[in-house]
Queue: 2 jobs
Job 1
Amino acid sequence: MMREQNPAKKPSFDAIVANPPFSYRWEPTEALGEDMRFKNYGLAPKSAADFAFLLHGFHYLKDEGVMAIILPHGVLFRGGAEERIRTKLLKDGHIDTVIGLPANLFYSTGIPVCILVLKKCKKPDDVLFINAAEHFEKGKRQNQLTDKHIAKIVDTYQFRKEEARYSRKVEMAEIEKNDFNLNISRYISTAVGEAEIDLAAIHASLVDIEQAIQKATAEHNAFLQELGLPLLPSAN
C-alpha cells in the first residue's frame, strides 16, 4: 500500500483484516519513530514486528471501523516496547476483544495464535476474552475449526456473551491491576473441577474386593492342598 503523507487524503477503511508474519525481525529507524502510524505508540522491537503490523493497519481504520488481526500469544504479555504499546492501546480503549485459538491451525506454524479485535471508538469499558483454544476438530496434520466452532466464537463476540471457562468480559480496572497483561489464562480459568469423592461408596467397594480376594484365596488353597503344594499366604 502506498502511504499518503497528507492526512486529508489518507485512505481509511470500515474493516481491516490482517494475518502478518509472526514475530518478524525488522529494522526500526529513528525516522520511523516519527511516522504517523507509530508516533503515538512507539516502535515495535527489532525482534518482533507484530505491533508494527497492527499499528499500520489501525492507522487506516475509520473511526467506526473494526480491525481483526491474527498474532502470536506473545503480543498479549511480552514486556518492553510491546508492553508500552499494548498499555496505550488499552488505555485509549482500542482493544475490544481477545480471542484465543487452538494450536496447529496453520501449515506454517504449530503455535497457538490469537485474534485481536480493535476499534477506534469502543463503547464498553471492558475487554471481552474468548478462550476457544480447546474447541476444535483434530485432524491428521492440522487442527480445524468447524462451522459450529466458528459460529460459537462469532455469536459470543457479537453479543458479548459470558460462559464459564470460555468467555468473560473483564473490566479495565482488573486489567490495570494485572499491569495490562492480556494473557487469556489470567482472566478465564480452564481448570475443570475435580469430581467429589464418595467415601462410603469407595469403602463398600473395597470391602467387596477384599472379601472376593479372601474367597478366591481359600478356593485356590483347597486345590493346592489336594495336590500337596505350598499354600498361598492368607490375605489377612
Job 2
Amino acid sequence: MRSSRGFALPLATTVVVFAATVPFAASAAADEGDYLRVVLSRFVFLNAEQSLAQGNKICDVTRGGVPASDAVIMTSKDLQVSVPAAYDIVNAAVVHLC
C-alpha cells in the first residue's frame, strides 16, 4: 500500500486501518464457495478443509470481540503464513463468511 506521496505505508498502519474498518463492514450472508475461491486461488498450498476451518475460526473470534489485527496474527501463526497473507485470509473471511 502506498501513500499519496509514493511512500510505502508501514504494515502496522495497514493492519490498524483494516482493524478499524472491520466493525463497520456490512454484514453479508456466509458464502463458503466465494471464500474458498478467493483464498485457494491465491494460496495454492492451503487446502479447502484447513482454509474453511481457519475462516470459521476468524469469524468466531472477531464476533467474540477479538480485534481483526489480532486475528491476522493468529492466522499467520495457525497457517504458518506471512502477515500480509494472513491479512488477505482474514479479509476474505470477514467479507465472505462472517
